[in-house]
Known about the structure:
It is built from 14 helices and twelve strands. With 345 residues, the protein is of the alpha/beta class.
Amino acid sequence: METAVNNAGRATPGEGLDPEQVLELGRNVLRREEKAIAAACARLGDSFVHAVRAMLDCRGRVAVTGMGKAGDIGKKIQATLSSTATPAYCLHPVEALHGDLGTIQSQDVVIALSKSGETQELVSLLPALKNLGCVVILVTANPEAHCAGLADIVLDIGDTPEACPLGLAPSSSTAAMLAVGDALALTVMELKNVQPEQYAAYHPGGALGRSLMRVSEVMRTGADCPVVEIDGTLSDYYEAVMRAPRRAGAAAIVDREGKLVGIFTHGDLFRLRPGTIDPERTLIAEVMTHTPKTARATDRVAEALRPMQQYRLDELPVVNDDGKLVGLIDIQDLVAKGFSAFDDQ
Length: 345
């Protein structure tokens, strides 16, 4: 096989690769990073407990700071904290030294990241943070470093070799930093007893938010939920759906106590034989669907969607524990929020 040549006349690096060698190289990187995380795990002790307590007692926010790759890891830790009910923000050390200290309050807890513990920007910043009254947690591979002496709590991740073939690019150390950051954030989350509904509030968009959404958040109520009493007629149905501010494809049928007894849809209307029905005289009870499928307001939308998919329903009444109507789910609203109408979830 001829070796491919690039525009500069050099051999293309990807030519002649041994797949097994490539896989082994990749696995070696993962093994080294796995060892780094295991080393950090073995070092968890009282300082971790103190750090968690400081975050639970925090009356302000958590600031995460670091330079270079450690700062990039800090952004992920900050994002995890913010999405798990611990308000957090990123603080760039250089910007903080040039005016952004005004962002910080004395009630804040600061998580500082530095493998060496000698990052000059942090050496300059940490005393200022202490002067403000902040609790400082340092995540480092060098618990004897200058920054460690400036921090209130030191989390030692261990000085394991980097996974980089040159031993230079931050890799194993940043993997351990991220793992310790996750351990802090998720331990605090569990001790705060954060519930799925709270978590969903921080993730309103995308599949995650949809999977946790409750029926009460999407159902139509009031004037948007057409209702016809059991002794009403087809004309009453026309009037109810036309009166609804939002286009409605069905009306719920209730008894005098407001309990759901049936549903009538546009599809049911179209299936009636033309010319044989007098809307003024035809009772809705004669043509409605009895004992329809229902949902509860506290159900997750994903659960309510299953019978709609299974039975090809465009509308689903929502009832309370007494069987009284409280709302109506319309498939149009679910599609607008990103749910797939009749695909498996």
